[in-house]
Amino acid sequence: xxxxxxxxxxxxxxxxxxxxxxxxxxxxxxxxxxxxxxxxxxxxxxxxxxxxxxxxxxxxxxxxxxxxxxxxxxxxxxxxxxxxxxxxxxxxxxxxxxxxxxxxxxxxxxxxxxxxxxxxxxxxxxxxxxxxxxxxxxxxxxxxxxxxxx
Length: 150
What we know:
This protein is an all-alpha fold. It has helices at residues 2-25, 30-100.
């Protein structure tokens, strides 16, 4: 912003100096030259005010756009934080449920196994309809479902 202001300032000053030199070198009377200098000076002054007003307006507009973008970014960050917090809570609850589920038949043995070695009972393999313990599909997610985001 300062570079633009310096550039415009340089153009205005260069124009003023050039106009003054041109008028002084022109074959006119002193009074005509002074009147022309005043007139040109007023023109440049009004142009400078107009340019400054335009720059101020543009700066205000840019600042408003930046504020809007920052507010949107802040809101999206809050939403993402809440989504992730909820995801952590769901995961913790799933882990808690999984940890509380019974993992044995109470005898300390795998379902369908006898106390005599590690062979399954005849016709009583794991998940067999004729076994003591019916097959049970795993319950609860081991990890939360993935959704778009981070």
